[in-house]
Write a structure and sequence with these properties.
Layout lengths: L4 H9 L3 E5 L8 H5 L6 E5 L3 H9 L4 E2 L11 E4 L6 H11 L3 E4 L10 H17 L2 E3 L5 E3 L16 E8 L2 H13 L4 E6 L8 H10 L5 E6 L5 H11 L5 E5 L4 H10 L7 H11 L2 E3 L2 H13 L8 E4 L3 H13 L9 H8 L23 H10 L5 E7 L7 H18 L3 E6 L7 H14 L3 E2 L2 H21 L1
Parallel strand pairs: 1-2, 1-4, 2-3, 4-5, 5-6, 8-9, 8-10, 10-11, 11-12, 13-14, 14-15, 15-16
Antiparallel strand pairs: 7-9
Helix pairs in contact: 4-5, 6-11, 7-8, 8-10, 11-17, 12-17, 14-15, 15-16
Length: 472
């Protein structure tokens, strides 16, 4: 039978009836608990009497097989041992289930013959039946709109326009919770593991057409059809930013990818050239991915290279200037007109008004005027403010009032504004950082743990928008 991947993905992402096969007491019925916010019907399939009582205590109807469920099922989560998978799939095919997520692992990625043979068996079964298989060896789907998740930390209330695809379940979860913790809503996340049937090109294509998706994030170890992957990437990247994190960039990483998802990574030179040609954004870590999405979400289509920096001591000003300059930005001197006006009121005791601007404690009463001068200066295209957490002794209300001045200056000038933290002991300062970051999120100002991380992410995003101009 021929697959209709879009229609079947729709049924997987927006099911009316879900069944979980194999949820057990030993893992605290985690797959059923993951569905605690599900906005549709949920059934369990379990034959072990020791597990059934606990399932019923959760208030979830249990049946001995999928075919016994008294209505059509749109989406099945399979969490049974490897050898039991063909029997579950046989029932799912008899039931007419359109989409199955297979959490079960130990197939081709295990390197043993039995795992390979069973994977080939299930591939034949689902292909002949026209069933869409997500996985195996994956975490499946997070869709907050329907309350479907695969991890307890995923927030079904924080819905946005970022869609995530990942061969790794751990990275899928980390990207989801990492972005949501930054105040960035997630539209949907799909972990697809071994990509036996559903692969990254299919998901790129799907989210290209999805009107709820503005940004696509992807962790890829190796698409089975590289040509198809880059064909679709070239189509989507000019219309929606695609942030790509490639796993298996080194020989050691490639060995790990082969045993993780069975992926065979190709030449990094070819990969990098293809990503660049397509106009996608390449990142090398979870932190970089989150930082880049911060920039894309909050800063708009910024293409500037001239940075105005405010905050920090003399030594910190030097370091921040080095960080941004190292990534191709300039930290220009302010215009003569701005310097003249600054000089008319700025107190230079322990402070400086050359870019970077160190306002010290004595100039805080003039912060609004300083910000207006900085953001209106023709030499400045982007404003970056440094927040020295250890030095903060002001009340929460005073902090809110101060940060509102930054937002006001941003709105008045129309120029991008970002914040950077500076802490030598971030674990000790975590509560103060969290408090400040929460206020910044409310004000729509992205924050970065260090100036260097801000510089790296900003460079990638500025280059992306410049490349888009070249592609048009």
């Amino acid at each position: 039978m021929v697959l209709d991947i879009k229609t079947q993905l729709d049924s997987a992402f927006n099911p009316k009836v879900v069944a979980v096969v194999g949820s057990r007491m030993v893992d605290d019925y985690i797959w059923l608990r993951n569905m605690s916010d599900l906005k549709c019907k949920l059934y369990s399939v379990q034959i072990n009497p020791d597990d059934i009582a606990g399932i019923e205590n959760l208030g979830i109807p249990n049946y001995k097989s999928l075919v016994e469920i008294p209505e059509p099922v749109d989406y099945v989560v399979v969490a049974v041992p490897r050898r039991a998978v063909p029997f579950v799939l046989k029932d799912a095919i008899s039931k007419g289930v359109p989409s199955v997520h297979m959490f079960t692992s130990g197939f081709a990625e295990s390197g043993n013959q039995e795992g390979f043979d069973i994977q080939q068996q299930i591939a034949t079964m689902v292909k002949d039946a026209g069933m869409l298989l997500i996985g195996p060896n994956c975490m499946g789907v997070f869709n907050p709109r329907v309350g479907m998740r695969f991890g307890a930390g995923q927030d079904v209330e924080n819905i946005g326009t970022v869609s995530i695809i990942s061969q790794s379940g751990g990275h899928a979860s980390a990207m989801t919770t990492g972005l949501q913790s930054c105040g960035i809503g997630v539209n949907m996340t799909v972990s697809f593991g071994n990509a036996l049937m559903l692969d990254s090109p299919d998901l790129l294509e799907y989210f290209t057409q999805d009107t709820n998706t503005d940004i696509i994030c992807a962790y890829i170890e190796g698409p089975k059809d590289g040509g198809e992957f880059f064909r679709i990437l070239r189509k989507v990247a000019p219309s929606k930013p695609v942030v790509l994190w490639k796993g298996g960039r080194t020989e050691a990483g490639q060995r790990s990818a082969a045993s993780h998802t069975g992926s065979l990574a190709g030449s990094m030179e070819v990969w990098n050239a293809g990503v660049k040609q397509a106009g996608a954004i390449s990142v090398d870590s979870l932190e970089e991915l989150i930082d880049v999405v911060r920039c894309l979400t909050y800063l708009g289509k910024t293409k500037g290279d001239r940075i105005g920096i405010i905050g920090g001591s003399g030594g910190q000003s030097v370091s921040m200037s080095d960080d941004f300059s190292s990534y191709g930005f300039t930290v220009p001197q302010l215009s003569d007109k701005t310097l003249e006006r600054m000089g008319s009121f700025f107190q230079l005791i322990g402070a400086s008004y050359f870019n970077p601007v160190d306002i010290g404690g004595i100039n805080r009463d003039n912060l609004g005027e300083i910000l207006d001068l900085l953001t209106s200066d023709p030499n400045i295209e982007i404003l970056a403010m440094m927040r020295g957490i250890q030095a903060r002794r002001r009340s929460h209300e005073d902090l809110v009032d101060e940060l509102k001045l930054y937002r006001q200056a941003k709105d008045n000038s129309g120029k991008p504004l970002l914040a950077m933290f500076w802490s030598s002991a971030p674990n000790n300062d975590s509560e103060a950082i969290k408090e400040t970051d929460a206020i910044l999120q409310e004000l729509g100002i992205p924050s970065f743990p260090t100036p260097l991380r801000a510089a790296v992410a900003l460079r990638k995003v500025v280059d992306y928008y410049k490349i888009l101009d070249d592609l048009e």
